[in-house]
């Protein structure tokens, strides 16, 4: 009995820490103040150039994105308004794991290099990224605070080079 309780509280703690990276406002790790310290190893977690993490249930709308093993996203391009909060509901239709990493071009290049160094392991605490197992669906919410063209991309080894990225046009 005692052991069961212990196991339950351990999984609660795990669940809390797994989804605890997206606190808004009260967080010491918002993009605006850097938040770099929490992301040891990557050194590339300053997302303020392309927006900020948000709560899924506060999104203005949901965009469903699917990923396939032939290295593309459906849709391959989305259009959002500056200031909009989008929930991306990302489904992996393939048989390989895929990722959905938000960023501008420079950020994607940097992340691609980082992923190669990290042997393709996506850190679990990155609020701008999802790692989706085959047949899985994961959701992240993002507020696009800057106009411009950004990307969602997969950094599983070789996928980005094979063209696995989509475009996000953020209109002013
Ligand atoms: Cu992929």
Model description:
By secondary structure, this protein is α+β, with helices and mostly antiparallel strands. The protein has one domain: Immunoglobulin-like (Sandwich), CATH 2.60.40. Helix content is 17%, strand content 33%. It is built from 2 helices and 10 strands, in the order αββββββαββββ. It has a 5-stranded mixed sheet with strand order 1-8-5-2-3, with no helix packed on it. It has a 5-stranded mixed sheet with strand order 4-10-9-6-7, covered by helices on one side. The chain is globular. The N and C termini lie far apart (58 Å). 31% of the residues are buried.
What is this structure's SSE topology?
Layout: H1 2-18, E1 52-54, E2 61-68, E3 72-74, E4 77-81, E5 85-92, E6 98-103, H2 105-117, E7 129-132, E8 137-143, E9 148-153, E10 165-171
Parallel strand pairs: 2-5, 4-10
Antiparallel strand pairs: 1-8, 2-3, 5-8, 6-7, 6-9, 9-10
The structure holds copper (II) ion (CU).
Copper (II) ion binds at residues 98, 154, 156, 159, 164.
Tags for this model:
single chain; 172 residues; alpha+beta; Immunoglobulin-like; five-stranded mixed beta sheet; 10 strands; 33% strand; globular; disordered N terminus; binds copper (II) ion
Arithmetic mean pLDDT: 79
> Can you tell me the CATH architecture?
Sandwich
Let me know the CATH homologous superfamily: Cupredoxins -  blue copper proteins
Measured distance between first and last alpha carbons: 58 Å
CATH topology: Immunoglobulin-like
Number of domains: 1
What ligands can be seen in this structure?
copper (II) ion
How many beta-strand elements? 10
Structural class: alpha+beta
Strand order of the largest sheet: 1-8-5-2-3
Strand content: 25-35%
- Globular, elongated, flat, extended or rod-shaped: what is the shape? globular
> Which series of helices and strands comes N to C?
HEEEEEEHEEEE
């Amino acid at each position: 009995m005692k052991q069961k309780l212990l196991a339950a509280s351990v999984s609660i703690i795990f669940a809390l820490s797994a989804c605890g990276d997206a606190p808004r406002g009260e967080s010491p790790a918002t993009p605006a103040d850097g938040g770099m310290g929490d992301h040891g190893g990557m050194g590339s977690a300053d997302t303020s150039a392309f927006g900020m993490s948000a709560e899924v249930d506060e999104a203005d709308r949901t965009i469903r994105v699917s990923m396939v093993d032939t290295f593309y996203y459906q849709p391959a391009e989305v259009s959002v308004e500056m200031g909009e909060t989008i929930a991306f509901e990302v489904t992996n239709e393939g048989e390989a794991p895929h990722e959905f990493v938000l960023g501008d071009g420079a950020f994607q290049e940097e992340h691609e290099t980082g992923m190669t160094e990290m042997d393709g392991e996506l850190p679990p605490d990155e609020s701008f990224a999802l790692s989706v197992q085959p047949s899985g669906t994961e959701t992240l919410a993002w507020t696009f605070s800057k106009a411009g063209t950004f990307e969602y991309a997969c950094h599983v080894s070789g996928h980005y080079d094979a063209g696995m990225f989509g475009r996000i046009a953020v209109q002013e």
